[in-house]
Amino acid sequence: MKRVPPVMRLLAVAGAASLVLTACGGSDDKDGGSPSGGELKLAFIGAQTGPNAQLGINISNGVELAIAQYNATNPAKKVTLAKYDTKGDPAAAPAQADTLIEAEPIGIIGPAFSGESKAVVPKFEEAKIPSISPSATSTKLAANGWKYWHRVITNDDSQGAEDAKAILTQLKAKSVFLVDDNEEYSIGLAGKFVEAIKAGGVTPGTDKIDPNANDYSSTINKIKAAKPDVVFFAGYYAAGGKLLKQMRDGGVTAKFFSDDGALDQGLIDAAGAKQAEGAIISCACQSVNPTADNPAVGKFITDYKAKFNADQGTYSAEGFDVANIYLEGIKAGNDTPEKLNEYLKTVNVKGISKPIKFTETGEIEDKSIFYFLVKSGKLEFVGAADKIAS
Amino acid sequence: MSARNALDGLRSTAAVPGQKLSSWWGGAPVYQRYAVYVLLFVGALLLPYSGLAPIMSPHAKWSSILFFPIGIYVLLAIGLNVVVGYAGMLDLGYVAFWAIGAYSMADLSVRYHWTFWEILPVGILMAAISGIILGAPTLRLRGDYLAIVTLGFGEIIRKVAENAEYLGETRGINNVPHPPDITGVNIGGVDIFDYGIRDARPYYYLLVVVITLVIIMVKRMEHSRIGRSWAAIREDEDAAELMGVPTFKFKLLSFAIGAAVGGAAGVVWAAKVSFVAPAAFPFILSATILAAVVLGGSGNLPGVVLGAFMVAWLPERFRGAQEYRELIFGAVLVAMMIWRPEGLIPSRQRKAELAEGGGGSGHLGAEVAEVSK
Amino acid sequence: MFDDFTSSFWANTIDGMTVGSIYALVALGYTMVYGVLRLINFAHSEIFMIGTFGALATMQITGINGPFTGFALVAVLLLCLAGSMLASGGAAVALERIAYRPLRKRGASRLAALISAIGASLFLQELFATVIIPKWFAHGRGRDTLGLAQAGGEPRRLMDKEVLFSIGSGDVRNDKVLIIVAALAMMIILQLFVTRSKLGRGIRATAQDPETAVLLGVNIDRIVVVTFLIGGLMAGAAAFFFLLFYEVTSYFIGFILGIKAFTAAVLGGIGNLKGALVGGFTLGLVENYGASIFGSEWKDVIAFTILVIVLMFRPTGILGESLQRARA
Fold this sequence. Notes:
B: 2 strands, C: 328 residues, ABC transporter involved in vitamin B12 uptake, BtuC, Leu-bd (chain A), Peripla_BP_I (chain A)
């Protein structure tokens, strides 16, 4: 009689066992669906690590603060937050999105950036979970016919046009140089900006930089040769800081003008306080204006500082607002994603960051742009466009 | 010194069951071998079983990571193994072929409305042709010169994708259609041909089939005249040339086949994620796939598959370690190379080659050095 | 298109040479290790990265804050240079001990050593990103890019950057001159060391034929350590010059620079000390000229295309290999 080798026996047993397992496994794939013990889940998806993580951390901190304050009021159903780190990388985002959907939250804060939004929002649409991005500005996002997607920030089209107008009318620039860092968000913004500034009679010089590179000397030399009045940078602060630094060291004195992606202390850290002095940054956010006519703003600033031992940053207030929108909805008894999404259509609140009301496509109605100046190494809120020339 | 001995002891005890297994395998009759093959195939199909998820992947959706990174890494590692493991050439830009496959899928489907099944062969062909275009002028370079040129090629492909308006620049190509559905084929609660957005399992099954076909093809080549020629080139290219092996032709062939497999992986991947952007193809991914090949046992298919599985799975499994997981992964790579430089499951032939290599003297000895002499 | 090239030709020449000399110093580390061990030391980019933090640490610990001039400037620069070279040199020796020597003793394949190098590279990057930078350098800013201006949580400066004179469109700035001259000086010293000293002879002998070198009484272990040490010291010097010039660093700062420096080494002829210099300058210049013609986004594509073209016509680089035996 032939002995069956031990390996074969093992394999046979394993094979049989796994067959049995699947037989009973097919149906229970969806179990554990109902949320446990009177708790409701919210989810944040966006960068927590990676080169532009600070923007994502600002948002999630704002969200955490709002939820902590809500839970402290001992509501009937407490709310928990799960964070899904995409590193800001569209390639890493889908797996995180799948995990998020598996956890069955009733509302999503994020995705933070435009690139990852394209990659994962279709999944949330199919899962029928409402999402509100505090920060993804790419214009095209709203054109997808998404029904569960929203954002509390105006898109690049209006911002690029506003920036061009400010540069032409307030700064009275005769020549402009445009640099972008070749990111999803930056290209969209740069495109709109070029269109608007050409319409105003100025044809900008252009160049692109690699956000991961260190040496921008060829770009600096192009700028020097073009002798512009204003350098407009479309991109995130990581690359913006390095560019600004090398520009000033290279003797370029043109005004530096940038956008919300660069609105972070990181810009000044990398560039140096002296080099960054006088840089103008626009944002569809107020990044919390302490002088705003709203007492909740001051409370938010102090609460944030107390909880995280750091100043609130770009999009912290948006994150806080978004979380509060969900929390109000939950308080009103909307405890499923579907109900919550219906509730979002009715929202009309005066948030910390701006008035919030959504349009049909999920865009925000309010389109105001605000400006910031770098003064002695800090970002300072200056308000509307007419304040930047001084 | 004592730690060293302990390590050696550990190694030799670990080797005993392995040796038994491989000697049994060597003498096993055909039907037993086929039974094992079939069981492995069925086992692979059963892997997404949700009961395994809490053990295998507590932090990310199991069936999702089975497709990517695990399945895709396995396929890429099998393809790279043809170049590195069989023909002994060092390729540091392998991810470029994956990118070419993915962009073929994205471009042809979005712009020309081809379906997945039409694009699959075209994507594979495109990748293979790029392999030949890269290989033809550069394959006369030896060893590390080839390595840096392939590295450069990988970066060029990524940068071109980043800057070419046609390919959507860094924004990439969006809304890549999924493969056409065949609804109603429901086995064990899964619509196995229903290629939707959320359920990764149908894509995983598709990938398992592709991997199986590629393994069969590669395995047949390994034991044919082609495989023997590759081995000869790997051992000593000059001698092979003198013995009448058309080395250039066979090197080019291995490059093209490796590229084609990468292209296949790209097409399947793009059809699932439906969003292709240059950020998905960094150099570190080429390095990771190479690490998978070497870690598992360069030149030995079961080893390579195991290596790719480990490299893809471990960082996902230990997502709980949060930000430290990449740190741990790096340390594990170094430790593994010190512990088993020949890989987890080295091929017996390669082991013999290593044994007669340079030994403990100054140079690190062995394969690529052999090629580059 | 060509307007930019002609109008900023001199500016690009000067900047290309500055970047090129940093490439060249880092390339030396690749070339030396490759010459002796035939190993692509992928973790060398991290050795460079550690050097920038060595200099930063020196500034934080001593509390140096300028701007300095004259003799004080020289002293401060030398001190920071020592800090970065010490950090990089130490890290390179430790790397050899931990990640490569055990492999060498076991006669492992060079492929295995390459993977070990990639692992070590990943480990060091993440070690800085997750532990060292947040603890000692970031001052609450996470793993963001750090500006020299923020080192120690307060603005720090070493020297004022002044334009000495101009050649056409090119401003000759004091820090650029310093970097180019210092880099050249270090390479001359290294060349003398390798050709004249006893250890240098040992290095060349090992590169040529390790077995024979052993028979002739060369202590291979020592030679390998010295090789790594020299490579590390040069990377450390490059790191300090980098910090002086760009005034930023981060945990992934070495990655692109490392790939470029390795490209420079191969371009010039790997294993060849002069080749590193020629390759570094060639790459720095070609990149900047190319960027001014095609746009900066094509910089890397231009660099690698040049590499492929050069290797097609000269398979062992511009100057060929010399530290080791010539290969077919």
